[in-house]
Design brief:
179 residues, eight-stranded mixed β-sheet, alpha+beta, Aminopeptidase
Length: 179
Amino acid sequence: MASSASTPARSLRWSQTLRDRSQVLIRTIVPQDRAAERAFLETLSSEARCFRFFGQVRSPSEQLIDRLTDLDPHSEAAFVAVIPEGSAERIVGAARYGASADGAACECAVTVIDEWQNKGLGGALMKHLIELARERGIHRMYSVDLAENLQMRDLARHLGFHVRVDPDDDRQVIHELSL
């Protein structure tokens, strides 16, 4: 039986082999990832930052880092892809969702740093996020993206999302997936 969207997310982790045979650890994000999340966001190219935050974030605020790492386990979920870097972990990709108040739908986002793009990492992160959303009883997943973000459009189509122009802003598209 599927759990409801209000069921807290459990701690998950697994190794993922990408198309180029590189390996990452994918796991749930935790509040202790604050420094790694800040470094991840600061490492994003200006284009990736624009696509993820619609150009509105140059340097991540403490409030944004808090929001991205300290999730409400009843309505949010996030996975990070990490690689070892010295004695710490470096985040190279992240996917997350936030559920609607009734738990029927969720908005998602995925971001991968430039040097880890085109390896299948975004797709792997999203497949795990979609699976978790289904397990939690969410019926619809969507994202709102800039229309010029062709990589996201290709990824969304590959994952089975349907795309349409945002009726409120023709510079944006809405990707939707029935779960």
